[in-house]
Design a protein that fits this description.
mainly beta; nine-stranded mixed beta sheet; seven-stranded antiparallel beta sheet; 0% helix; globular
Length: 233
């Protein structure tokens, strides 16, 4: 099964300081057919204006991954963590039994990012936060695991879910293969460029949900960046 979700079909919201596109039901956007995909619950495509951001607010029992596409985001939370995550970097927050955090764009430019929520493998984990860079050159024409709760993915940021977040940069004319484990679900969003996923042409910020498919070939028609989430079930 392959379900193509073009950017124009997503839920869209304009709050002035924040322009958001929702791949799944979120806030005032509700679509009963888009409540999640496997353990993936939220994929928001956010544009945050300079000197603005999300004020302090609480979460619990959710794994929240922020993939920064351009600019930077500055984090602060009730555990005492503070950090700045730049384009090309990833931050992970395990909300667990409860955490209060803020995310601010303190830059002079608009920050763009993907905010990804994955349901944890159980309730009641200890809350935590972490960030690290993953050099873009390391993702050249291959999917690199950035965050994972799967045994064997120790080089990735840890999340409390049987899931992986991966990304790749693909040069024009190059291809890579994407294969899901049996019984797993996948969701991919093209961050930039133009690719063909099998016979399906993806434009920037389009999404595609995948389940019960064999290996798929991703071919770049121009230099591209793609982010994927894989979850058990």
């Amino acid at each position: 099964m392959i379900d193509y979700r073009p950017f124009a079909s997503l839920g869209h919201a304009d709050h002035g300081w924040l322009k958001a596109a929702h791949h799944f039901s979120f806030s005032s956007y509700h679509d009963p057919d888009r409540m999640g995909w496997g353990a993936l619950r939220v994929w928001n495509d956010d544009e945050i204006a300079p000197d603005s951001g999300f004020p302090s607010h609480p979460h619990r029992d959710m794994e929240i991954i922020t993939y920064v596409r351009s600019g930077a985001i500055s984090h602060r939370d009730s555990l005492g963590n503070e950090g700045r995550t730049e384009a090309g970097q990833v931050q992970v927050m395990s909300a667990g039994t409860g955490i209060v955090h803020s995310e601010a764009n303190l830059e002079r430019e608009t920050t763009t990012l993907f905010q990804i929520w994955i349901m944890p493998d159980r309730r009641g984990h200890a809350p935590s936060w972490g960030t690290r860079p993953f050099p873009v050159e390391a993702r050249d024409n291959r999917l690199v695991t950035l965050a994972s709760g799967v045994t064997g993915d120790e080089d990735a940021l840890k999340i409390n879910a049987e899931a992986r977040v991966k990304a790749a940069t693909i040069r024009r004319g190059e291809t890579l293969s994407w294969a899901l484990e049996p019984g797993w679900s996948g969701y991919a969003v093209l961050a930039s460029g133009a690719v063909r996923l099998g016979d399906l042409a993806l434009k920037p910020r389009d999404g595609v949900a995948i389940r019960d498919e064999g290996p798929l070939t991703i071919t770049a028609d121009e230099e591209s960046e793609i982010v994927v989430v894989e979850t058990a079930g």
